[in-house]
Structure formats: C-alpha cells, structure tokens
Design brief:
The protein has about 675 residues and is α+β, with helices and mostly antiparallel strands. About 20% of the residues lie in helices and about 10% in strands. It comes from Novosphingobium olei.
Amino acid sequence: MGLAAFRQPVTGIVAALSLALAGCGGGDSSGSVAPTPTPTSTPGSARVYPTLASEALTVSDVQKVIAQAVGEAQALNYPAVIAVVDRVGNVLAVYRMNGAPTRMIFSKITGAGTENATPTGFQGVNVEASMGAIAKAVTAAYLSSSGNAFSTRTASMIVQQHFPPAPNTPGLESGPLFGVQFSQLPCSDLNTRYAAGNAGSGAFIGPKRSPIGLSADPGGLPLYKNGVVVGGIGVMADGDYAFDRDVSNVDGDVEEYEALAGIQGFAPDDAIRADKIPVDGTTLRFSDARVEGLHTLKSDYAAIAGTAGTLVPVNGYFDGKAILPGTAYGTEASGFRYATSSEFSNPDAFVLTDGSGNNRYPIRGGTDAADVAQPLTAAEVRAVLEEAFKVMSRARAQIRRPLDSRAEVSLSVVDTYGTPLGVVRGPDAPIFGTDVSLQKARTAAFFSNKVAAAQLQGDLDAGVPAFVDAVRTFLGDPQALTGTKAFADRSGGNLSRPYFPDGEVGRPNGPLSLPIDQWSPFATGLQTALIKADVVQHAVFVEGSLNARDVKQQCSNVPDAPNGKKRLANGIQIFPGSVPIYRGTQLVGAIGISGDGIDQDDMIAFLGTNNGGVKVGSIGNAPKDIRADTIVVNVGNGVRLRYVNCPFAPFLDTSDQNVCEGL
C-alpha cells in the first residue's frame, strides 16, 4: 500500500490542518493491547518479526458487535444494514434492520465539487445496499494490522485528488493510495469466493473479494482482540455511497456512530489508530464519531434477533441462515500461513494456501516462452523475491506503530502474461496488499509490454480504446505503449491523475484519467473503464436477478494472452510500488509490492530486482535509457515522468541514504 514521503514541502496550511486533525477520532481500547516494538535482531535464519497471537471472532463476539450497532441505530432512529467480516474477508453476518435501505447510490459529486450531470465510471450507479456494508467491513479489516488501525474514513482521505482533501489544500499531490479503491474486485482471480453450504470444505479460505472493491464511505471500522485485528464492521444506513471531501471539519455521520458502537470491546489500541499516524505532517483520520457521543450500549443479541431486524442472505457472500465464527489469520483454514523451508528461505515469510496445505502461488518459471526468448526461471524469481524480502526486513515502516517497526508488505512476481510466479508476504502485512501487489506487478508488466496498445484497442468496453490515442497525443509519441519504454506504477500513476503534474490545479488531466469536473474516487479513468462492466454484472448477480450469472474470475475485457488468461486478471493499480524486470533489453516480467509506504514499496521492488539480478547475474531493472523517467511531457517548461522514488535513510540497521542512487 503505502503512504509516501511526499515530493513537495508541507505548506503552512497543511501543517496547521494536521494539528487541527490530531486527536480527532473515536473508539476505546477495550480488548486491545498496546503494540510492542519489533525485535531488533538482524535478518537471517531466525525470525525477526513477532509471532502473532491466534485470535478470531466467535459467534457470541459477532452477536455483541451487531447488537451494539443496532442499539445505537435504534437510539438514532436510523435503521441500517450491518455487516461483519473476519480478517480475511469472510462474511460472518449481514443484519438488515426493519426500515433499513435496500438500495444505495454511488455519489455523483466530482473532484471539482459539483454534481456530474453526465455521470462517468460508477457515479450514479444504483446497487443493493448490503454490497456497501460488506465493502466497508472488508476495507477496515484489510487496511489494518497489529501496527495500524485504519477505517473507511482513513481510506477516503488517501484516495482523493489532493492530500489531505479540503477546500484549503488545492495544489497538493493526490492521495498516497490513489486508486486503491479499485482493488479486491469481485472479478479478481486472486481473491476467493464464498461457497454456500460448504463451510467445512474450504469455503472460508481467504482473502475474499469485496463486492465493489474497497470503500471510502465512512462507516467501516476494524475489530481487534488482544491487539490482533480480527475483522471489521460495515454500516450502510443512508443509501448514499460517498466520501469525505473536507477533512478540515468534523462530521456527525450516523453510520460511523453505529459502527463505533459496534466495535466497543473490540476497538484498536489508541496508539495504532490512524489518528495517531502522521504522513508528511498531516495526521490521518480514523473516526469523527466519539465514544462520549454514544448512547447507552445494548449488547443483548437475543433481544433484537427477529424483532429489530433479521439476518439476510447476500448472493455470493452469506446465506443468511446463522451467524458464523471467524477464522484465525495465520492458520491453514484462513488461507494464509507461514511458508515451509522448501517454499521460501526466509522463516518469516507467509504464503497463500488452498486450505489443504498447498501453496496457491509457489515459485516457478515464466509461462511466456511463446513470446519471450528466455523466460524467467524459477531460480531467478526466487532470487528477486528473496532479495526483496531482505530489503523489506531491514526497512523502516512508514505507517506502522510503534515507530521504528520493520516494514511488512506483500510481494508478487509475474511474467509478461501476468501469470503469478510467486507471492509471499510479511506475517502481519495488511491483507489488502496481497491483491494490490499482484495488480501492481501486472500493471508494470502490461504497460511495459509491446502489446499494451493493441490489448487496450482490442477491449470493446466503453471508452477503453480511446485511452491509447490519448496517451500518444499527450506524450507526442505515436509509438507509445508498444514496449519502447519501461513503465513502473509510479510512471503510469503520473498519467492517471486528474491534474498533470500531479495536484497542480488548472493543469490538464493525465491521459489515463478524466478531467477534474468528471473525475471522482468512483470514476478514475482507464482504471474504472476496464472493470465497470464486470462490477455491474456482479451487482446484478448479488441482487439475485433471474438467471443472472456471477462475473468471471478474470477482470477486464482485454484479449486473452496466449495462455488463455487475461493479463490484467485483477484490474490495474495506479499508485506506486512496482517495476518491470528485464533480461538485457527484453521485458521478462515485473514485481509488485504493497504494504507499508509507497516509497518503501518502490524501494523494495527496485532494490529487490537489482539485488536479485546481481545474485543470479542474468536479470535486473530496465536499462536506464528506456525507463519512463526519460519521457519529458511538453507541459509548461516540460515535466519528466517519474520511475521510482526511494525514501532517505530507510533502513533500521544502517544510516545509508540515497540507496537507489545510480542503479
């Protein structure tokens, strides 16, 4: 994921705003334990990350969470749909109160602050309200870890066109997780699917998909037990699926108050909440609702079961018959576990599992021999992942508490077809980074590929082919997107912002974005155009419409690669943290990183590829003369695209600076 060290100084306005925001938020620390520093031993054969306690939500825990949220909703006279998920996204309950909305509408408010008369992307799309509640719960669970507790209000703050989003902050760069909302998609080939009536046979293997990706609508908060994140709650009560455009004030959001009531006894420790985590002088947001504003808690589920509302089925997510217990993250049943020594050399590494002991993404060689003279070998993939994991283990985390904790990320390597060649994780890396790291790797491999333009032109989804001409016109290069340049996600992200250069008001939009009077977190440009049809099809399926089929487990409508799969099988990502991998001048794959800071993500990808290449002597980063940072866009005095941005003095064990310089 990553919250970056930004590239421009913090203005007085932002600094003042960050002071005003510090301390905003709600929640108590009941049931939580303050974090302890990461062990300081040198990475090697022994584990350097703490072993997580095994915790999971019980049925009675879920009942209490729902009862407390329902009690607050009754006191506010604002009935809601309430969803609870475990850490890996399994839906444990969906409770619809009597009178709660059955539909919700994506906001049509644009980045310019006006309602779009001609909605683009998902603006104005009307879907089943339970989809929003589930998405909010998944977001809070997936963005959080034992070192950081994030909410959907946190997500709202970090995905907009300026960071922080407020009327008095124009001209600042876009949010550090710009575009992350379109991850965990229902069409993703990485995220797993609920199997109705099959709970004892792999149905709970995660990470699960979200029905509409991640949410920026306040009302989703994480759940903790004994300092361990165990899930999330999501509340949908007003039918308006939106985002917070102004973080300089405090909202009285009923959905957030209802969610806050729900997490009492399961709240994160104050020390790790988003409102204790600054990014370049700006404190993040956790919740505008406050514990002292809650009504008397009601925790008796028996008193509301079948009277205040009822459990409801949600097609593809929950059968509505009974509340389910959560799975403990790190167990075989959760879909994540420690790697065996034969799977990965570092004993701290986690892998994804199928629930029967099998690694879902074992390290292997490239599958693209039909197009690449010398595909990546398994030894080369292993070397890149091992070296990247070592860089992660030494790096200082950006968003994790306490300070000077080690970074924890997810790492994915793909070939030029987008085929996963290996996926590993830090043990406590946020769950969302698993899908995002694969998105990032595939995005870098795709836009650096000689077939990128042809693939986009072959996609018949509305508006997708036009982005090729837009890029070529914008760059003044009729051969753009034909493999002549190497694109990292930071490079493609530059071209995906509603202002170019990033954040500078009055500038044109990047060619992969939309103009600011059309753009919103629900309409980002090419990213949304590629997957809108998939998500809408899934929404029809969730609603249970007659004969509706679920969306395929392959995102986008780009033509299939020679292996019969989509190169963008879980969508694209447009915030930093990936680089393509080359053998000389030949593209052979890419690595994507997501978890603890976008500059950290860039560094781990870039140094991991470099160090892995040095180790095996055959592969490495793109040659300097074809990297995207050689492209100068004729805007004003000329603006150079970016490739990677590594943090200064990033390591815990040395004072080295400029660690990516000259590579």
